[in-house]
Amino acid sequence: MKQIKIFSSIGRAFIPKKLRPTISEQYFKAGYPDVPYTLFGALFYLTLFITYFVYFPMVFTLIKDLSSILFLVFTFLLWVIVPLFLSAVIMLGLYFYNDIKIFNRTKNMEEILGDYLTLVSTNLKGGMSFENALWNAIRPEFGLLAEEMGLVSKRVMTGNDLSESLMEFAKKYPSPIIRRSMNLIISEVNSGGKISHLMDRVVGDLKKTRLLKLEMAASTLTYIIFISAIIIFISPVLFSLSYQLLDIMLSFMGRFAGLTVTNMPISFTGGETIDPLAFKRFSFFAISIISIFASMIISIIQKGDIRSGLKYIPIFWVSSILVYVVSGSILSGIFSGLV
Question: Nearest 10 degrees: CA dihedral of 126, 127, 132, 133?
Fold first, then answer.
């Protein structure tokens, strides 16, 4: 328990006070009620641990023969810059992780918002007040949306204004659909109109929007299949074929290296040769980059957002690497008789 308290205290001291409200809001949107200051403190010790293994085995042997002043300056700079750099990288990674989680939670609420508002409209038509209709429409299958609307209902029951509670919920998540729906409901509540009719129109618009997104995704299916074929099959096979041709050319050049041939358009002597292992490493790197960016392109075409395609990156990367290895083995067997 003492170590946990120490980590928590260091984590709080590590985060500037100006950033604490922003970080707290982001973690709350991601589904965490409290900021994990204990994790931040543990990560701070982790950065010092990594810096230790960077400094003594690598840097210390290079600067130990310098003058005392230069030695102290380089040591100080390294023990300041490396932990700060590692901390920035870790915090950036946590930020992107939370951002993706918030995005997924928001999309989940958008998909079930129409079903929830349908129940609210049904309750209103049954004679309930708007506050009771919101509360009685909450179902466990609505998940996160049920939790959020439960908080809205509890705020209203404890004396808070209904419009302010709904607006607070609308501003909590980066969703134009939720924000527009709540703005329409709030304006109708303030004007005293028939909310049930507005609910039906909002639900109809949500269903139309969802159908339009599905139609757009279906219309771009050809492009997605074409790009997927390039990622998984075409580019790995071409890299494998290039590697085999390089291997064959280097083998022939090795055989003719000792011969003196005149009046030939190709010279087999002089110059630097390409390392096949270096080309294979380059192929793995290029296939990985192609998989990452192509999955993002597919996500933009299909969903209109890059974050939706991050789940495709491992699938495309593993598939393309497997195809590259298998095609390399097959082509090696085919061209083995030529070498």
Answer: 40
- Write out the two tokens for 11: 């984590």
Query: Based on C-alpha coordinates, what's the Rg of the chain?
Result: 30
Q: Scan for tokens 């703005």, then name that residue.
A: 183
Beta carbons within 10 angstroms of residue 288's beta carbon:
15
Residue with tokens 């085995």: 57
Q: In whole angstroms, how far apart are CA 147 and each of 39, 72, 84?
A: 26, 55, 38
Specify the pTM.
Answer: 0.68
pLDDT class of 90 with cuts at 50, 70, 90: confident
Residues of the chain with pLDDT > 90, as a percent, come to 6
Q: How far apart are CA 306 and CA 325, in angstroms?
A: 29
The answer to whether the beta carbons of residues 170 and 182 sit under 8 Å apart is yes
Give the integer Cα–Cα distance in Å for 71 and 93: 33
Quick one: tokens of 151? 């908080």
Average pLDDT, integer, range 228-235:
89
Tokens of 115: 């079903």
Mean pLDDT of 217-229: 82
Report residue 144 CA to chain centroid gap: 21
| DSSP state letters, 161-204 | -HHHHHHHHHHHS--HHHHHHHHHHHHHHHHT--HHHHHHHHHH
- Domains belonging to the chain, first-starting first, are 2-104 (no CATH), 109-211 (1.20.81), 220-338 (no CATH)
- Alpha-carbon distance of 149 to 190, in angstroms, equals 19
Cα 266 to chain centroid, rounded: 49
Most confident region among 32-36, 62-66, 167-171, 252-256 by mean pLDDT: 167-171
Tokens 């998940």: give the residue: 143
Residue 2: which pLDDT band, with cuts at 50, 70 and 90? Answer: low
